[in-house]
Every structure is written in C-alpha cells, then in structure tokens.
C-alpha cells in the first residue's frame, strides 16, 4: 500500500478523518498489512493487544468460548469497520475475544502506542473515537435488551428487519452474509432452533428460505410480528 493511496484510504475512515497529513504519515509508517485465509485466527482471547484493526476486505467474527466449548459470537465486522481499538485505553491490554476470518480477508494493523500519542495531539480524533465507542455501546445495549426481553423468533425477526430497506413494504430478498451457524450464535439460539424458526415463519408465509437467500414476502407483517 503506497503512501499516497494510504493517506486517501485512511482519511475516508472516521477515526482518521480529523488527522493532519503529518499525523497520517506517522500512522502509516507503523502500520502492517495482515492477510488471512478463511478460518484463520487473527488473535486469540487473552493475547497481548498491541494493535487495533481496520478491515480492508473480508469478514471477521469476534467470539468467546464457554467452559464446555460452546461458541458465542459477540460481533461480526466487515470492510471499512475497525475493531479492538477500545482496548488501548484499558489497564489490562489483552484481547477479550477471539477474532477469526470468515472468508479470505485483509486487515490493516495499527500500533496502539502511536495512536495514543496522536490522540494527545488531536482533539478532533479524540471526539471521533468517543463517538465510535458510544455508538458501539448503544449497539451492545440493544443486544442486551434483545437477549433479555425477546424470544428467539423475535430476535431473528429483528435481525432480519435490520437488513431490509427502512419502511419498505414490497417483497425483498436478504442474502445472509454469514453462515447460519454464526447467525444462530450471534442471536444466542441453537442451530436447530434457527431451522425451526425458518420453518415456522415460512409456514405462515412471511418468508421463504432458499439456501443463503431469504425471500421476505411480507415486510410489514414481519414488523407487526415484533410489535
């Protein structure tokens, strides 16, 4: 990645948009590009966290394993999204999750110490980081609310509605970008339970499932389902 294209690429991301050319150059001089195959781990839980990452291409699942080996997907991140940046502010700088590539992927790794130095120099970037963390906190609170107050079917319907155009009343198609097992883990349901949800929603005519494609026959009906 040459310097000119790097400046342009990084400045398009909100975390770097407030940086000066000099600060961008400082960041670029310390970045590294990491390429991973599908199924390869970028880091494991409790590894020392020296970097945070920006996804250039591909898809990652962030997950934890229970004592019995059950996998719980905490988040899924894709192109132009950053992850693990909050750890640089923690006293114990270790990754709290595992990060695994769900497809052939490429990420930019940023040095935490260099980024902290720049934050001391740049108020705009500080506010960008705070805004990003606030949005993620809100998202996590919504997840907690969903897991606490909704049953498995409502959680899936809410997930599906997030992938539809807002306010759309016409039949639509949603292509699941994640394996169904990952969707199930993300929603805290067993894969066999997700299959039953597909069957039940199909039976009443709200959706039709063809592989990774979900045909939403009645978007308004789905919205009424969660009301």
Q: Look at the structure and give the mean pLDDT.
A: 86
Cα shape: elongated
Please count the beta strands (DSSP E, at least 2 residues each). 11
Number of helices: 8
Structural class: alpha+beta
Percent of residues in beta strands: 15-25%
Largest sheet: 4 strands, antiparallel
Q: Round the Cα radius of gyration to an integer and report it.
A: 20 Å
Question: What is the H-and-E element order?
Answer: HHEEEEEEEEHHHEHHEEH
Task: Give the distance, in angstroms, between the N- and C-terminal Cα atoms.
Answer: 48 Å
Question: How much helicity do the residues have?
Answer: 40-55%
The largest sheet has its strands arranged as 1-8-3-6
Low-confidence parts? none
Structure at a glance:
The chain has helices at 3-11, 21-28, 112-121, 123-149, 152-161, 180-186, 191-203, 219-226, and strands spanning 32-36, 41-43, 51-57, 60-65, 71-77, 82-83, 98-101, 105-111, 172-175, 207-210, 213-216. With 227 residues, the protein is an alpha+beta fold.
Structure description:
With 227 residues, the protein is of the alpha+beta class. 41% of the residues lie in helices and 23% in strands. The chain has eight helices and eleven strands. It has helices at residues 3-11, 21-28, 112-121, 123-149, 152-161, 180-186, 191-203, 219-226, and strands at 32-36, 41-43, 51-57, 60-65, 71-77, 82-83, 98-101, 105-111, 172-175, 207-210, 213-216. The protein has a four-stranded antiparallel sheet. Strand 4 and strand 5 form a beta hairpin. Helix 1 (3-11) packs across helix 2 and helix 5 packs across helix 8 (219-226). 22% of the residues are buried. The model has no long low-confidence stretch (mean pLDDT 86).
